[in-house]
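Q: Could you fold this chain for me?
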Amino acid sequence: MTVTIYHNPACGTSRNVLALIRNSGEEPCVIEYLKTPPSRSELIALIGRMGRPLRDLLRRKGTPYDELGLDNPALTDDALLDAMMAHPILIERPIVVTPEAVRLCRPSETVLDILPNPQRGAFSKEDGEAVVDADGNRVAASSS
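A: Sure. Below is the predicted structure, expressed as structure tokens.
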């Protein structure tokens, strides 16, 4: 297995990303991170490989983010990591690991940039938005 997804099956974006991975012919290692959260050192390594600030990986919607006051700019990365370890729902998803990169795949088609294999056929998101055409090519985003 060359692809790992930190997945929440209740999240539409996460389900779309998993389906795009499978549409490339990969059967990824699926880690339901709410049931099996990454260790602190694993999370630090993932964030480091993404090259993004830790705050970018904090999920706000549907989490205790506001109640915990995590928008306080005085909080250190260690304090934010403590919160993420105590409340894995605070970890934004889905995170995908491939031989190419580690990426937070929001929007879901972001995963196409790091998959080792091309898409095998057409793919539309759960909401019907076409992402990949019948030839396996990425569909240009339409401007509304």
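A (continued): DSSP finds three helices and six strands in the chain.
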